[in-house]
Amino acid sequence: MRIGVYGLGYVGLTGAICLASEGHDIVGVDVSDDKVRKIASGASPIREPGLDAMLAQALAAGRLRCTTDPYVPARTCDLAIVCVGTPSAPDGSHNMRDIAEVTRQIASGLREAGRKERLTVVYRSTFRPGSIDGLILPIFESTLGGARDLVEVVYNPEFLREATAVKDFFHPPKVVVGTADGRPSARVEEMNRNLEAPTFTVGYREAEFTKFVDNSFHALKVAYANEIGRVCLRLGIDAKVVHEIFVSDTKLNISPYYLRPGGPFGGSCLPKDVRALQYIANDVGANTHVIDALMRSNDAHKHFLFTRAVEGLKPGDRILMVGLAFKSDTDDLRESPNIDLARKLIQGGYALSIYDPSLKPEHLIGQNLGYAYTHLPRLNDLLVDKEAVERDAFDLVIDTNGSASALALEAAKILDIHTL
Fold this sequence. Notes:
Rossmann fold; 6-stranded parallel beta sheet
C-alpha cells in the first residue's frame, strides 16, 4: 500500500520504517525541515536499537521519502497514519492543537485533490475518548461537506516501548482497532496482516480509552511497589525479599513487570496520560481517588530517593549519576525522574557529574531538547565520559538503571535506585 505517516517522532518514524520493511511505499510528513533532511540523509533523529539499519534499507529500496508538505498523502496514499503529539495542557488535558491541524490539512488535501478513491485515516496519537466523534469527524464533515464519505476514520493505538520499539511493532501484546461501526477495516487489516497478536475490533471510544487504561495501570503498579518498598525500608524489612515473594504469584499478582520497588515513573507517556485521565474523571464527576494520588505518590518517591541519596553527605561532596534518560539505551529526557533528582542535587550544593553514553546533547530535538535544557540548563557541563568516570573518585554513585556494575568505579558509596 501507499501509506502516509504524519509526525516522525518515536511512534511515527518507527512505524514508517517498519512498514517500509514490509514492502509498503511510505511518505513521512513532519513540520521540521531539519528532521526531514536528517531522515532523508539516513540519520535517524531518535535513538532506537535496530532503527538505523532499517532506515538505510528503506531509503536504498526507495520505500521511504519524507516531506514537510502535509497535502501529499491526501493526493497519493491509500492510508494515512496520524502520530503527532498530544502533550499535556496546563490543566492536565491533552493539547489537541496538532491533531486538529493535521485533520484539517488532510481534509483540505482531499477536497483540493478531487480524488474519488476513499482515504483511510488511522489515528495513533493518544487522546480523550470521544475525540473522534467530537473533534475529528466534525472537521472532516465541515471541510468535505457532501464528500465526507471520501474518508474512513480508524483509531489504532500503538503499544511501543522505547528501546524495544521495533520488536514491539512486529510483536505487539494486542491489536486494537476502533471503527465507526465496530467492524474491521479492510485497509487496516492489510496493514496489520503480518502481526500475530490478539485483535480487538471495537467502537471508537473503547479503542480511544485503551491507552489510558494501560498506562494508568502501569503507573499504578510502579507507585504501589515504591510505596511498599518505602515501608519496608522504614521497618527494616528487606524489600527485595518481599518483592521476590510477591512476583512469584503470577496467577493472582498478574505479572512482575512494573512491580519492582525502584525508580519513579516518568517518560513521555505515563505522566501525561495519568494527568489527562485525572482531568477526564474530574470532568465527568467519576471521583477516582487512587488515580488522583498517583502523581503525588510519584513526587513523594522522587523526594524520598533524594533524601536517601544524600543521607550522610555534605554540600560540595562529589556525586556521579549513571543514567539521566528515564530508561537505559534511550536519549528521551521528557519527564525523566532522573532529571528531577539531578536538579535537587545541584540545588543542594553537591558537585554533580552525569554519565549516560546514550545521551548526545547535539542530537536532542523538539520537546526532548526543550525539556532537558529547561530543567538542566548546564547539562553540557554536567556530562562526563567513561574515562573521567573511571579515573575520578566520588563520594556517591547513583545508579539509575542498573548499568553502573559494568564500570570500574571508585566510590565511597554506590546507591542503586533501580531497585530498592
